[in-house]
Amino acid sequence: MSQGDDWTEPGAFPVAVGVYRIPLPLPTDGLRAVNVYAIETRSGLVLVDGGWAIQESQKQLEAALRTIDYKVTDITRFLVTHVHRDHYTQASVIGRQVGAHVSLGVGEKPTLDLIRGGWTAPDPQAAQLSRAGASTLAEQWAALTELEQPDRTHWGYPDAWLNGDRTLDVGDRALVAVSTPGHTQGHYVFADLASNLLFAGDHVLPAITPSIGFEAAPGPNPLGDFLNSLAKVRALPDLILLPAHGAVTVSSHARVDELAAHHDHRLQLCLEAVDAGAVTAHAVANELPWTRHRRRLADLDTFNATLATLETFAHLELLVAREQVIHEEVEGVLHYQKMSTNP
Predict the structure, then answer these.
(1) Which residues form the Metallo-beta-lactamase domain (predicted)?
(2) End-to-end CA distance of the chain
(3) pTM, whole model, 2 decimals?
């Protein structure tokens, strides 16, 4: 299953009989590429995820398909793991171009509604940052996103909404569509149990931890949702992990266990920061190390500082749900305090 050291290298790489991994470029994103998976059927190709709707990505997709004797017009269906632009927008655009059917989790509808309908200031994520006590960062985020308004023609509604866990017929394959909210509200993974494959989207990534709470319309407890979804995937057989970002790896169970342990550790760090006197999510985020290089929040750019603050917010809200801390809203900002252990 070795495909070289650079998983972002263009091409179409077989990962199982009739299944190919196709990395597509993300030229302004630190992730560098997104893996789209092409599944052969008698009637054409089914793609898990679609990539980002930019010219460079579609050209690379067309070139990769030619290497396995297919064209974009051979795509009959997209199964999209979630609504983030590097997964959904090219599926939406190509789906309209060639008449391919597009499916997406129904939990993504609130975010799509916001994107398609526009929103009044402040930007939804700027508003979340303000509640997290990060007013300056909220202003920086609003200024950044004001210059990058989404092209709403890339964000059509899907042909079908996935709701709940179900089995999908994909040619001769049966894919178990598993609802895995957390990274986004409507995230799905697709398990081919007969072939021992897990199309994991961003839910389980081999080298990085998926962002939590970074969506226009997040749920009330995204980290709790994510951990529950990890438990659902852990209850499946141990499958070959086909991630959206990173190389194919042999054990879904091993990586799920690492992700669960990571968040247990981060929850403990958040609890300790609150106990030491940090009262807002932004203040807690300032006390935590970030990335494998253990950088400080102040050293991150606006985008990554936003991810870090919103993820800290999600950790604190899970601690509230677990009754380990309490929160109180003070002038629009949530303040946290460790729950008293006194009887």
Answers:
(1) 33-245
(2) 57
(3) 0.94
